[in-house]
Amino acid sequence: MLQTIRESGRIRPKGIFGLWPAYRDNNDVVILDPKNRRNELARLHFLRQQAIKKKDNPHFCLADFIAGESSGVEDSIGAFAVTAGHTVEEMAKEFEKDNDDYSSIMIKAVGDRLAEAFAEYLHEKVRKDFYGIHEDHTVQELIEEKYQGIRPAIGYPSCPDHTEKQTIWNLLGAEEKIGVALTETFAMNPPSSVSGYYFMHPEARYFHVGQLDKVQVTDYAERKKVTASHIEKWLSPHLAY
Protein backbone atom coordinates (compact mmCIF):
# COMPACT_ATOMS: atom_id res chain seq x y z
CA MET A 1 0.00 0.00 0.00
CA LEU A 2 1.38 3.38 -1.07
CA GLN A 3 -0.01 6.83 -0.35
CA THR A 4 1.15 10.29 -1.42
CA ILE A 5 0.29 13.45 0.55
CA ARG A 6 0.82 17.08 -0.53
CA GLU A 7 0.35 20.49 1.09
CA SER A 8 -0.37 23.89 -0.47
CA GLY A 9 1.63 27.14 -0.46
CA ARG A 10 4.76 28.38 -2.24
CA ILE A 11 6.84 25.86 -0.29
CA ARG A 12 4.79 22.73 -0.71
CA PRO A 13 5.90 19.81 1.47
CA LYS A 14 4.94 16.45 0.06
CA GLY A 15 5.60 12.89 1.01
CA ILE A 16 4.97 9.28 0.24
CA PHE A 17 4.87 6.25 2.47
CA GLY A 18 4.35 2.54 2.01
CA LEU A 19 3.39 -0.33 4.31
CA TRP A 20 4.11 -3.94 3.42
CA PRO A 21 3.76 -7.34 5.05
CA ALA A 22 7.18 -8.48 6.23
CA TYR A 23 9.08 -10.98 8.35
CA ARG A 24 12.54 -11.14 9.92
CA ASP A 25 15.19 -13.44 8.49
CA ASN A 26 18.09 -13.19 10.96
CA ASN A 27 19.40 -9.62 10.43
CA ASP A 28 17.37 -9.02 7.27
CA VAL A 29 13.73 -8.02 6.79
CA VAL A 30 11.92 -9.65 3.89
CA ILE A 31 9.21 -7.50 2.29
CA LEU A 32 6.32 -9.42 0.77
CA ASP A 33 3.87 -8.63 -2.00
CA PRO A 34 0.57 -7.62 -0.30
CA LYS A 35 -1.36 -9.27 -3.13
CA ASN A 36 0.52 -12.56 -2.84
CA ARG A 37 2.51 -13.02 0.35
CA ARG A 38 4.42 -15.92 -1.14
CA ASN A 39 6.26 -13.46 -3.38
CA GLU A 40 9.28 -11.57 -2.03
CA LEU A 41 9.33 -7.94 -3.20
CA ALA A 42 12.58 -6.88 -1.60
CA ARG A 43 14.97 -7.53 1.24
CA LEU A 44 16.27 -4.92 3.68
CA HIS A 45 19.65 -5.48 5.29
CA PHE A 46 20.50 -4.36 8.80
CA LEU A 47 23.49 -4.37 11.14
CA ARG A 48 23.80 -5.47 14.75
CA GLN A 49 25.52 -3.82 17.68
CA GLN A 50 28.80 -5.48 18.63
CA ALA A 51 30.07 -3.47 21.60
CA ILE A 52 30.68 -5.39 24.82
CA LYS A 53 27.67 -4.93 27.09
CA LYS A 54 26.65 -5.85 30.59
CA LYS A 55 25.02 -9.23 31.08
CA ASP A 56 21.47 -9.53 29.70
CA ASN A 57 21.74 -6.25 27.75
CA PRO A 58 20.78 -7.11 24.16
CA HIS A 59 22.82 -6.25 21.09
CA PHE A 60 20.16 -4.51 19.03
CA CYS A 61 19.44 -4.84 15.32
CA LEU A 62 16.45 -3.13 13.69
CA ALA A 63 15.38 -6.48 12.24
CA ASP A 64 14.65 -7.60 15.83
CA PHE A 65 11.54 -5.40 15.80
CA ILE A 66 9.88 -7.48 13.05
CA ALA A 67 8.39 -10.91 13.80
CA GLY A 68 10.10 -13.99 12.38
CA GLU A 69 8.44 -16.08 9.67
CA SER A 70 7.87 -19.03 12.03
CA SER A 71 6.32 -16.89 14.79
CA GLY A 72 2.81 -17.06 13.35
CA VAL A 73 2.55 -13.27 13.62
CA GLU A 74 1.58 -11.32 10.49
CA ASP A 75 3.89 -8.35 10.82
CA SER A 76 4.65 -5.35 8.62
CA ILE A 77 7.25 -2.68 7.95
CA GLY A 78 6.88 0.78 6.52
CA ALA A 79 9.04 3.32 4.73
CA PHE A 80 8.63 6.96 3.82
CA ALA A 81 10.17 9.89 1.97
CA VAL A 82 9.18 13.53 2.43
CA THR A 83 10.47 16.80 1.02
CA ALA A 84 9.98 20.54 1.30
CA GLY A 85 10.50 20.60 -2.47
CA HIS A 86 12.78 22.33 -4.97
CA THR A 87 11.30 25.74 -4.15
CA VAL A 88 13.54 26.00 -1.08
CA GLU A 89 16.71 25.89 -3.20
CA GLU A 90 15.18 28.23 -5.77
CA MET A 91 14.38 30.81 -3.08
CA ALA A 92 17.88 30.41 -1.59
CA LYS A 93 19.41 31.19 -4.98
CA GLU A 94 17.23 34.29 -5.29
CA PHE A 95 18.62 35.57 -2.00
CA GLU A 96 22.18 34.71 -3.05
CA LYS A 97 21.76 36.78 -6.23
CA ASP A 98 20.94 39.73 -3.98
CA ASN A 99 24.04 38.95 -1.87
CA ASP A 100 21.75 38.10 1.02
CA ASP A 101 23.58 35.05 2.35
CA TYR A 102 21.84 35.23 5.72
CA SER A 103 18.36 34.85 4.19
CA SER A 104 19.69 32.06 1.94
CA ILE A 105 20.93 30.11 4.95
CA MET A 106 17.71 30.76 6.86
CA ILE A 107 15.38 29.61 4.08
CA LYS A 108 17.37 26.38 3.82
CA ALA A 109 17.04 25.92 7.58
CA VAL A 110 13.29 26.54 7.32
CA GLY A 111 13.09 23.97 4.52
CA ASP A 112 14.86 21.39 6.65
CA ARG A 113 12.51 22.05 9.57
CA LEU A 114 9.46 21.80 7.30
CA ALA A 115 10.64 18.44 5.98
CA GLU A 116 11.19 17.14 9.53
CA ALA A 117 7.81 18.48 10.65
CA PHE A 118 6.08 16.84 7.69
CA ALA A 119 7.85 13.55 8.47
CA GLU A 120 6.54 13.78 12.04
CA TYR A 121 3.02 14.55 10.79
CA LEU A 122 3.11 11.62 8.39
CA HIS A 123 4.34 9.27 11.13
CA GLU A 124 1.44 10.30 13.38
CA LYS A 125 -1.03 9.75 10.53
CA VAL A 126 0.35 6.26 9.88
CA ARG A 127 0.19 5.33 13.57
CA LYS A 128 -3.39 6.48 13.99
CA ASP A 129 -5.01 5.86 10.61
CA PHE A 130 -3.28 2.70 9.45
CA TYR A 131 -2.13 0.92 12.61
CA GLY A 132 -5.09 2.02 14.72
CA ILE A 133 -2.90 3.16 17.61
CA HIS A 134 -4.83 5.36 20.03
CA GLU A 135 -2.80 8.26 21.37
CA ASP A 136 -3.49 11.71 22.75
CA HIS A 137 -0.05 13.16 23.46
CA THR A 138 0.88 16.68 24.40
CA VAL A 139 3.37 18.57 22.25
CA GLN A 140 6.07 17.91 24.83
CA GLU A 141 5.30 14.17 24.83
CA LEU A 142 5.59 14.15 21.04
CA ILE A 143 8.96 15.90 21.27
CA GLU A 144 10.05 13.27 23.78
CA GLU A 145 8.83 10.53 21.39
CA LYS A 146 6.43 8.97 23.90
CA TYR A 147 4.41 7.41 21.09
CA GLN A 148 4.65 3.80 19.94
CA GLY A 149 7.03 3.03 17.11
CA ILE A 150 10.10 4.63 15.57
CA ARG A 151 11.04 6.12 12.18
CA PRO A 152 14.84 5.73 11.91
CA ALA A 153 16.33 7.67 9.02
CA ILE A 154 18.44 5.72 6.54
CA GLY A 155 22.09 6.59 7.09
CA TYR A 156 21.66 7.35 10.78
CA PRO A 157 23.15 5.43 13.77
CA SER A 158 20.88 2.36 13.77
CA CYS A 159 21.03 1.89 9.97
CA PRO A 160 24.17 3.69 8.71
CA ASP A 161 24.28 2.23 5.19
CA HIS A 162 22.99 4.93 2.81
CA THR A 163 22.91 2.48 -0.12
CA GLU A 164 19.82 0.83 1.41
CA LYS A 165 17.88 3.93 0.29
CA GLN A 166 17.84 2.52 -3.24
CA THR A 167 15.61 -0.37 -2.19
CA ILE A 168 13.18 2.03 -0.54
CA TRP A 169 13.21 4.33 -3.58
CA ASN A 170 12.39 1.37 -5.82
CA LEU A 171 9.48 0.34 -3.60
CA LEU A 172 8.07 3.84 -3.11
CA GLY A 173 8.76 5.31 -6.54
CA ALA A 174 9.85 8.41 -4.62
CA GLU A 175 11.50 10.18 -7.54
CA GLU A 176 8.53 9.71 -9.86
CA LYS A 177 5.85 10.50 -7.29
CA ILE A 178 7.30 13.34 -5.19
CA GLY A 179 10.39 14.40 -7.17
CA VAL A 180 13.08 13.33 -4.69
CA ALA A 181 16.10 11.82 -6.46
CA LEU A 182 19.13 10.01 -5.08
CA THR A 183 22.59 11.27 -6.01
CA GLU A 184 25.59 9.03 -6.74
CA THR A 185 26.44 9.17 -3.04
CA PHE A 186 22.81 8.45 -2.05
CA ALA A 187 22.15 11.95 -0.76
CA MET A 188 18.62 13.20 -1.41
CA ASN A 189 17.88 15.96 -3.91
CA PRO A 190 16.27 18.37 -3.09
CA PRO A 191 18.34 18.55 0.12
CA SER A 192 15.39 19.50 2.35
CA SER A 193 14.19 15.91 2.39
CA VAL A 194 13.87 13.11 4.93
CA SER A 195 13.46 9.36 4.49
CA GLY A 196 13.41 6.31 6.69
CA TYR A 197 11.61 3.25 7.97
CA TYR A 198 8.55 2.67 10.15
CA PHE A 199 8.83 0.07 12.91
CA MET A 200 5.67 -0.20 15.02
CA HIS A 201 6.77 -2.81 17.57
CA PRO A 202 5.88 -1.52 21.09
CA GLU A 203 9.50 -2.01 22.20
CA ALA A 204 11.12 -0.52 19.11
CA ARG A 205 13.79 1.98 20.07
CA TYR A 206 16.57 4.08 18.60
CA PHE A 207 20.14 2.96 19.13
CA HIS A 208 23.67 3.30 17.75
CA VAL A 209 25.10 0.33 15.87
CA GLY A 210 28.61 1.45 16.78
CA GLN A 211 31.85 0.04 15.39
CA LEU A 212 31.73 -3.04 13.15
CA ASP A 213 34.25 -5.85 12.94
CA LYS A 214 35.32 -7.59 9.74
CA VAL A 215 33.23 -10.72 10.43
CA GLN A 216 29.98 -8.75 10.40
CA VAL A 217 31.04 -6.64 7.42
CA THR A 218 31.81 -9.80 5.45
CA ASP A 219 28.47 -11.32 6.41
CA TYR A 220 26.68 -8.09 5.52
CA ALA A 221 28.38 -7.98 2.12
CA GLU A 222 27.33 -11.58 1.43
CA ARG A 223 23.73 -10.80 2.34
CA LYS A 224 23.74 -7.79 0.00
CA LYS A 225 25.54 -9.81 -2.69
CA VAL A 226 28.37 -7.28 -3.04
CA THR A 227 32.07 -7.36 -2.23
CA ALA A 228 33.39 -6.64 1.26
CA SER A 229 35.47 -3.78 -0.15
CA HIS A 230 32.29 -2.18 -1.51
CA ILE A 231 30.73 -2.27 1.96
CA GLU A 232 33.92 -1.02 3.58
CA LYS A 233 33.79 2.02 1.29
CA TRP A 234 30.28 2.98 2.38
CA LEU A 235 30.68 2.09 6.05
CA SER A 236 34.27 3.34 6.52
CA PRO A 237 33.41 5.67 9.46
CA HIS A 238 31.88 2.71 11.31
CA LEU A 239 34.68 0.14 10.95
CA ALA A 240 36.59 -1.13 13.98
CA TYR A 241 39.56 -2.24 11.86
Biggest sheet overview: 6 strands, antiparallel
Structural class call reads: alpha+beta
Question: What is the 3D shape?
Answer: globular
The total domain count is 2
Structure description:
By secondary structure, the chain is of the alpha+beta class. It folds into two domains: 2-208, Vitamin B12-dependent methionine synthase, activation domain (Cobalamin-dependent Methionine Synthase, domain 1, Roll), CATH 3.10.196; 211-241, no CATH class. 32% of the residues lie in helices and 22% in strands. The chain is built from seven helices and eight strands. It has helices spanning 87-97, 101-130, 139-143, 165-172, 174-178, 214-224, 228-234; strands spanning 2-6, 14-25, 28-33, 36-45, 75-83, 181-182, 188-189, 193-198. The strands form two sheets. Strands 1, 2, 3, 4, 5 and 8 form a six-stranded antiparallel beta sheet that branches. Strand 6 (181-182) and strand 7 (188-189) form a beta hairpin. Helix 1 (87-97) packs antiparallel against helix 2 and helix 6 crosses helix 7. The longest helix is centred in the middle third of the chain and has 30 residues, at 101-130. The protein is globular, with a radius of gyration of 19 Å. The termini are far apart. The model has no long low-confidence stretch (mean pLDDT 93).
